[in-house]
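A favour, since you know our structure tokens better than I do. Just paste the record in under my message, thanks.
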Amino acid sequence: MMSLESIIAENDKTTQEARRKGLSPYIALQDGDEGIKKAPRLGYFVPNGYESVQEFFVDSTGWKRESEPALTFGQLLKKVREGYGYGIVECGQFQLYVREYKRV
């Protein structure tokens, strides 16, 4: 199991790399776009021209039940909106946070 310090350090590194590489969110081509599987790891980086809209707590194992707090991938897909961007903010051992972005 990863320690909290390890998770924080990894997420800080991800944020710095995303900024350095000039990464941007994956833009959904349609509602429910499964292409969000390609969403980049952006950490806490919010690219120029985007603003953060909301974050989703998502199971990353594929073993979660729908009654548990983290969203399943199917539940997340129901929230994906055409034209909005998506990126991974934080990755833990079993869950992750996906951020939704809007172009400004």
